[in-house]
Amino acid sequence: MKRIFVLLTVALSLGLSACTNNTVASITLVAHDSFVMSDELLAGYEKTVGPELTIVRAGDVGEMTGKLVLTKDAPIADVVYGIDNTFASVIDENKVLGENKLVPINFADICFNVDIQYFNEKNLAIPDHWKELIQPKYKNLTVIENPNLSSTGLGFLVSTFAAFSTEDETTSWWKSFKNNGVKVAASWEDAYYTDFSGSAGKGKYPVVLSYSSSPADEVDENGNAKTVALRKDCFRQIEYAGVLKNANYQAGEALIKFMLGKSFQEALPAAMYVYPIDETVALPESWALRAPAAISTIGGDLDIAKNRSAWLSAYNKVFDAAP
Question: 188 and 49: one domain?
Answer without folding.
Answer: no
